[in-house]
């Protein structure tokens, strides 16, 4: 957690460490001044100056402790995402019902027009039957993840497949089934 103080960002752990060092310094200055031998020349003036310095160090240390302890989060709630989540995409409309003979004729004509890789992926999807997850298509090992994405982009542009979001992957279904 970071706290902004005076235009400078201070980490709470660093603020705690600094406060402990300041407290130790304040105690050391006060103890040295009580033993005698002043710091500023005279016996009484040196002791008074050291006591004042110890007091200032003590109050600065307390200020850093308060700053560090007040900047800690009250609960372990996860931080909000850095960007708002997009609204869910609308589902693709279902294809109108088509007779089996017409669908198979259209499908056969379109498959002949496909590139070799597109044809291979399309036939594998058709043979798989129902909807397939994109990560499962990648797991088949025929194509890399990037190649599967590119091929699905092309098949989707041609109207042969429909992709729908499904968690972290896509659900792929044939448009003519």
Number of domains: 2
Binned, the helix content reads: 40-55%
Radius of gyration computed on alpha carbons? 36 Å
Please report the number of helical segments. Answer: 6
CATH architecture of the largest domain: Orthogonal Bundle
Unreliable segments of 5+ consecutive residues: none
β-strand number: 5
State the order of secondary-structure elements, H for helix, E for strand: EEHHHHEHHEE
Strand order of the largest sheet: 3-5-4
User: Could you say what the CATH topology of the largest domain is called?
Assistant: Arc Repressor Mutant, subunit A
For the record, what is the CATH homologous superfamily label of the largest domain?
Answer: Winged helix-like DNA-binding domain superfamily/Winged helix DNA-binding domain
Kindly name the structural category: alpha+beta
* CATH C-level name of the largest domain: Mainly Alpha
């Amino acid at each position: 957690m970071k706290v902004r103080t005076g235009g400078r960002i201070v980490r709470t752990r660093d603020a705690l460490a600094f406060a402990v060092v300041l407290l130790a310094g304040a105690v050391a200055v006060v103890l040295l001044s009580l033993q005698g031998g002043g710091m500023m020349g005279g016996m009484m003036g040196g002791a008074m100056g050291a006591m004042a310095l110890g007091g200032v160090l003590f109050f600065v240390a307390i200020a850093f402790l308060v700053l560090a302890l007040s900047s800690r989060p009250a609960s372990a709630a996860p931080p909000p995402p850095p960007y708002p989540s997009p609204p869910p995409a609308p589902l693709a409309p279902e294809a109108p019902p088509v007779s089996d003979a017409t669908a198979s004729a259209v499908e056969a004509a379109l498959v002949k027009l496909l590139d070799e890789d597109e044809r291979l992926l399309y036939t594998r999807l058709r043979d798989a039957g129902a909807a397939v997850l994109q990560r499962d298509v990648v797991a088949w090992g025929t194509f890399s993840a990037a190649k599967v994405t590119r091929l699905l982009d092309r098949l989707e542009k041609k109207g042969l497949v429909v992709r729908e979001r499904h968690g972290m992957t896509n659900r792929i279904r044939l448009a003519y089934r």
